[in-house]
C-alpha cells in the first residue's frame, strides 16, 4: 500500500519499525505540524496562502508580534481556527489512536494546537504548545471566556475586560510546566520514541528526541523530508504519516 504511493519507504524499514514497537513496553510519540498537513492544515514551513503569503508565521507566533499588531495576529489566528474547525483527523491521527491500544503504554506529546489527535480518539494527549481553540486573558493569565459586547473590536475577557489572546505558546514563552515534566519523563523512560511530522528545529520539543537517544530508546522518524534528527534516528521512514503509520500498524503482530 505504502509502496504504491511512497516508493522511498521500503517494507523492510516499515518491518523494522513495527518490530521495535512490538517489543516496546513504553512508546513515546512526538508529533508536529506535518501529521496534520494531510488534514489540510498548513505546516509552519509551508508557503502560506492568500493574504498570509506576505507574513512569516514564525513572526506572527511571538509576543512581540502580538504587541506590535494584535489585530493582525488575531486575524491570522481566526483564519487558522476556522481551518482547524473544518478539518478532520486523517489516517495518521487515527493510526496513533489505534496504536495506543496495541502497546502496553503510549505517551502522545503533540506540538500541534489543533486538537485533531483527541478528535481521532487519542486520550491523555500532552499539548506542549497549547490549544488554538482556547482564549487566555492577558491580564489574569487564565483560560477565559469572551465578552459578548466586544463591538467588533479585539476579543475581551468576560470576567475582567482584559485583552484576550490564543492559549498557545509563542517563541520566548515557557512550555506549560505539567506538559514539560510529563514529556521529559516519557522521553527519558520510553523504549521507542517516534518523531512524526516535525522539523525538529523548535526547542525544547526538539530536545525530547535527543533525551530519548541519550537514554537508549530506539528512535524512529516519520517525515517525507530530512531533519536534524534524521542522521541520529535508528529508523527513518521517508513518507507522509497518513500512509506510513497505517502501514506500520498493519505489520504489528
Ligand atoms: C510531514 C508531512 C506529512 C510535511 N507527514 N510529515 C536553543 C535551545 C533551546 C531553546 C532555544 C534555542 N534557541 C532558541 C530557542 C528558543 C525557541 C526556539 O526553539 N527557537 C528555534 C527557532 C531555534 N523556543 C522557544 O522560544 C520555546 N520556549 C522556550 O524555549 O522557553 C524557554 C525560554 C524562555 C525564554 C527565553 C529563552 C528560552 C517556545 C517555542 C514555542 C513554539 N511555538 C509555535 C507556535 C505555537 C502556536 C501556534 O500554532 O500558533 O509552535 S512556533 C511553531 O513551531 C509551532 C510548532 O508547534 C513548532 C514546531 O514546528 P513543527 O511542528 O516542527 O512544524 P514545521 O512546520 O517546522 O515542520 C513540519 C514538518 O512536517 C516538516 O519537517 C515537514 O517535512 C513535515 N511534513 N508533510 C509527515 N504528510
Average pLDDT, rounded to a whole number, is: 94
Strand percentage lies at 15-25%
In the CATH scheme, what's the topology name of the largest domain? Rossmann fold
- The rounded Rg comes to 19 Å
Q: Work out the oligomeric state of the chains in this entry.
A: single chain
CATH class of the largest domain: Alpha Beta
Structural class: alpha/beta
Number of domains: 3
CATH architecture of the largest domain: 3-Layer(aba) Sandwich
Q: What's the end-to-end separation, in Å? A: 18 Å
Strand-and-helix sequence, N→C? HHEHHHHHEHEEEHEHEEH
Number of strands: 8
Number of helices: 11
- Bound ions, cofactors and other small molecules, one mention each: ligand BJW
The H-level CATH homologous superfamily of the largest domain, spelled out, is TPP-binding domain
* Shape designation: elongated
Q: Can you describe this structure?
A:
38% of the residues lie in helices and 15% in strands. The protein has helices spanning 2-5, 11-23, 34-37, 57-60, 63-68, 70-86, 91-102, 116-119, 177-189, 206-214, 241-250, and strands at 27-31, 106-110, 126-127, 130-137, 164-168, 192-196, 218-222, 235-237. The protein has three domains: 1-39 and 89-129 and 175-253, TPP-binding domain (Rossmann fold, 3-Layer(aba) Sandwich), CATH 3.40.50; 42-86, 2-Layer Sandwich (SIR2/SIRT2 'Small Domain'); 131-168, no CATH class. It is of the alpha/beta class and 253 residues long. α2 (11-23) crosses α11, α7 (91-102) packs parallel to α11 (241-250) and α9 runs parallel beside α10. Strands 3-2-1-6-7-8 form a six-stranded parallel beta sheet, with helices on both faces. The chain starts with a helix and ends with a helix. Bound molecules: ligand BJW. Ligand BJW binds next to α3. Ligand BJW is lined by residues 32-35, 37-38, 43-45, 61, 111, 113, 129, 168-174, 197-199, 201-204, 222-225, 227, 240-241.
